[in-house]
Specification:
CATH topology: Rossmann fold
Shape: globular
CATH class: Alpha Beta
Number of strands: 7
Radius of gyration: 19 Å
Oligomer: single chain
Bound molecules: adenosine-5'-triphosphate, magnesium ion
Strand content: 5-15%
């Protein structure tokens, strides 16, 4: 069951719109899809017209030691299941100070269930919730509007993914940039898109999400564009992006172990696969450094050399110190969510 996180450290780049519409595209194609709103501001929950769940049934509850995905209460919206956000996430943040606090979501998502794919929407901030999502993921999609600040945020997110892959989650495959809110009339959009494609190559999805009045309206009226039909620009773009993502998930799931990857190519994906239902990825390639000699970012404040490296220099949680070098035992530590134990849920 692949886990896909939608993340960009810059705000307003289309993360929530992409989470909703990729989920709707997978659901429309017949997949069983779960969306988790891990943004404490809960815009995705509100955009879908869903009610705010009680803390223990919100995304925060997934961090509890006793959380079990198969029995976790969900709301059903627009063809997929939703675990919504709650104000309690913000309150819980100040308790999430230990390195192990980034591990709990992964544990819960590894409990038995029958979803074909899980999508996680994140806030622009690199919070412990976002880290939980990255640690639990097989793939990160980075929505990026081809403008200066979103591109900077996207490249920083790429670097974060490299660090997480190296230190915390070796399953994480190469992140994929998804161009969003693309206006074909704007030269600067073309310029930034060209910059990303030149530097990151195949890590940039071929399908751009164009500006679309129906996508903008969908965020206001609690519907997805798929509810109004599959032929609108927004529905066509997100369906094509979902197909590409499904192919990448399939390729990652069937990739040979890293040490033999150079000798045998992965099996070809099925033709025009709509629904991502690959087995969980086992061995995947790490995020790779951008191609050397690639062009500098189109300069608005000068080329930022710090963005050209793969690693971030610090400020992120260190690898957790578990006794056996693996994960901390499930339920063995007081959880930041703690909603089920009632220990300190609403300070
Ligand atoms: N392709 C599109 N065409 C038109 N409007 C869009 C498109 N994608 C997103 N928008 C609009 O842009 C705004 C920001 O989108 P969205 O909320 O998805 O971004 P976000 O990255 O989740 O923001 P935040 O960082 O605040 O969570 C919303 O009003 C949304 O309706
Ligand atoms: Mg959002």
């Amino acid at each position: 069951m692949p886990v896909l996180t939608v993340c960009n450290h810059k705000g307003g780049t289309g993360k929530t719109t992409s989470s909703i519409h990729l989920a709707a595209a997978f659901g429309h194609a017949g997949g069983r899809v779960l969306v988790i709103d891990f943004d404490p501001q809960g815009f995705l929950t509100r955009m879908l017209g869903a009610s705010e769940p009680p803390p223990e049934h919100s995304a925060l509850g997934l961090l509890d030691a006793s959380a079990d995905l198969a029995s976790f209460p969900v709301q059903t919206v627009s063809g997929f299941d939703l675990i919504g956000s709650s104000m309690a996430l913000t309150k819980a943040l100040r308790r999430m100070t230990r390195p192990t606090d980034v591990l709990w979501l992964r544990e819960t998502l590894q409990t038995a269930h029958d979803y074909d794919i899980v999508l996680i929407d994140t806030a622009a901030a690199l919070s412990p919730f976002t880290m939980n999502a990255l640690v639990a993921s097989d793939l990160v999609v980075i929505p990026v509007t081809p403008e200066y600040q979103p591109v900077v945020g996207a490249e920083q997110t790429w670097q974060t993914c490299g660090l997480v892959q190296d230190k915390l989650n070796p399953r994480l495959s190469v992140p994929r940039f998804l161009l969003t809110q693309v206006d074909g009339r704007l030269n600067r959009h073309a310029k930034y898109a060209e910059y990303l494609r030149g530097k990151y190559g195949e890590a940039v999805l071929e399908t751009p999400i164009r500006t679309s009045s129906s996508l903008a309206a969908a965020s206001r009226d609690g519907r997805t564009v798929f509810d109004a039909g599959v032929t609108t620009r927004g529905a066509v773009d997100y369906r094509n992006a979902a197909k590409e993502i499904a192919r990448h998930l399939y390729a990652a799931a069937t990739a040979p172990p890293a040490d033999s990857a150079a000798e045998s190519a992965p099996a070809a994906p099925p033709e025009a696969q709509d629904v991502p239902a690959p087995p969980p990825p086992t061995a995947q390639a790490a995020p790779t450094a951008p191609a050397s000699g690639s062009p500098a970012p189109p300069a608005e404040r000068g080329g930022d050399g710090a963005l050209n490296g793969h690693r971030v220099s610090g400020g992120l949680p260190a690898a957790p110190a578990a006794p056996d070098g693996g994960e901390a035992p499930r339920g063995g530590a007081e959880r930041p969510g703690g909603v089920a134990s009632g220990s300190d849920a609403t300070p």
